[in-house]
Structures are given as C-alpha cells and as structure tokens.
C-alpha cells in the first residue's frame, strides 16, 4: 500500500539533546512538508521541500533542520535550540500541484523530559 | 498572504443533528479548497475538495461548495453520527504560494448519542 510513514510514534527527549524524526513516503510525491501541531491549535509549517536536495523554511523554522537527499525521505531534526519542542509533529507529502491534496503520516508526539 | 478562518469550536451536537462548520478564505490567486479530518492521535485525512468556483465536494455524507463570491467553503452534513466526532480543518492550496497548503485552526466536533 502506498503511504507516508512517520517514526517513532512517541519520542522522549532530554533537554539539550537533538532528536531526529523520520518521514518516508512511497507515493512518488515531489513535495514534502513538516508541520507542528500544539494542543487545540492548527498546523504550523516548519519546513518544506519541493524537490530533492532543496528545501525552504516555513513559518516556524527556528530550532529545526531538515534534509532531502532522497525523494522518499524528509527527516526533521529538532535541535537543542528549539526552546519549546514538546508537540505533535506531522509530515505530509503531495504532488506539489495546486489542485492536489496533501497526504499525512500518523504523526510523532515528542515530549521533553 | 493566504489565510483561512474557521468557525471556532468546540461544537457539540446530538446524533442525527445537522452540521455546519463555516470556513472563509483569503487568497491572492485562484485556490483549490479542501476539508481534512483528524481523529484523536492520528494525522489528517482528506475529507473532500473542490478545485474551482461552484464545484461541490462530497464524501461520506459531507458536502461543501466553493463560493467565490463569498470566499467561503462551508462544511455540511445532514445527519451526524457519533463516529463523526473529530477535528475538522479547512485548507487552501494556491498556485501563487507554490502549491503549499494553508490551514485553518481546526474545529472540534463532538457528537453525543
């Protein structure tokens, strides 16, 4: 089955540590996105990539980094510079065209302990 | 820039009641419009979409009509079920914004038996 897979589902991080969230898709989509969702709030765009080896900052990129070395993969690193990283992180992909929908993974819940 | 404004929640209805969730948008181009649904602890799933003015998207008894004159895309369902309890997001994708999606803040719907 084609889809988008995020791992792990739950992640705990100690303060001062970097952690990397995985996102893989087998939909052959060009565009991939990372969103952050806080309780009771909407989605905020962290980074997006429309093609391999290229990515752009979204609205809240500070304290995060990404890479896009393969079409299928778009990992997100939450660095120690992110002051409030506890949140639900959603990865999505799309064909990158205006009239096409985004496909979402199941999300990773990150908690700082 | 683009923006989406949704009716604030939470919304609580009895089973078989009529549902309306309002959504209005601002966009510089000619966007496509979407409704997504999110069940607890999961990612978003596409519920329906419309790609041009006067189009009606429909799925699982839900409907929404793209109204360019009022810049609206209200979600409706004639008879809700307990299983419809979820968070609903209105979104747009705009050619002038490189096809990225802009999301509303989400509306939480609870349906009671």
How would you describe this structure to a colleague?
The complex is a heterodimer of chains A (113) and B (113). Chain A has 113 residues and is mainly beta. Helix content of chain A is 0%, strand content 50%. Chain A is built from no helices and 11 strands. Chain A is globular and about 40 Å long. The termini of chain A are far apart. The mean pLDDT of chain A is 93. Chain B is built from no helices and 12 strands. By secondary structure, chain B is mainly β. In chain B, the strands form 3 sheets. In chain B, strands 2, 5, 6, 10, 11 and 12 form a 6-stranded mixed beta sheet that branches. Chain B has a 4-stranded antiparallel beta sheet with strand order 3-9-8-7, with no helix packed on it. In chain B, strands 1-4 form a two-stranded antiparallel ribbon. Chain B is globular. The A-B interface holds A 6, 31, 33, 40-43, 45, 48, 50, 90, 92, 94, 96-107, 109 and B 29, 31-32, 34, 36, 41-46, 49, 51, 89, 91, 93-95, 98-101, 103-106, 108.
């Amino acid at each position: 089955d084609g889809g988008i897979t995020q791992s792990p589902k739950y992640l705990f991080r100690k303060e001062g540590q970097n952690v990397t969230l995985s996102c893989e898709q087998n939909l052959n989509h060009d565009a991939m996105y990372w969103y952050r969702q806080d309780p009771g709030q909407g989605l905020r765009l962290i980074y997006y990539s429309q093609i391999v080896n290229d990515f752009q900052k979204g609205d809240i990129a500070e304290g995060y980094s990404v890479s896009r070395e393969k079409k299928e993969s778009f990992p997100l690193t939450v660095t120690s510079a992110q002051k409030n990283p506890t949140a639900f992180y959603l990865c999505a992909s799309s064909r990158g065209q205006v009239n096409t929908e985004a496909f979402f993974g199941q999300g990773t819940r990150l908690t700082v302990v | 820039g683009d923006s989406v404004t949704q009716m604030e929640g939470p919304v609580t209805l009895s089973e078989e009641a009529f549902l309306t969730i309002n959504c209005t948008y601002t966009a510089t181009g000619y966007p496509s419009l979407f409704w997504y649904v999110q069940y607890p602890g999961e990612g978003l799933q596409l519920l329906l979409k419309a790609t041009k003015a006067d189009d009606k998207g429909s799925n699982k008894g839900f409907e929404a009509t793209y109204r360019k004159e009022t810049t609206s895309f209200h979600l409706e369902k004639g008879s809700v079920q307990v299983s419809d309890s979820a968070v609903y997001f209105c979104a747009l994708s705009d050619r002038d914004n490189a096809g990225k999606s802009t999301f509303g803040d989400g509306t939480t719907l609870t349906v009671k038996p």
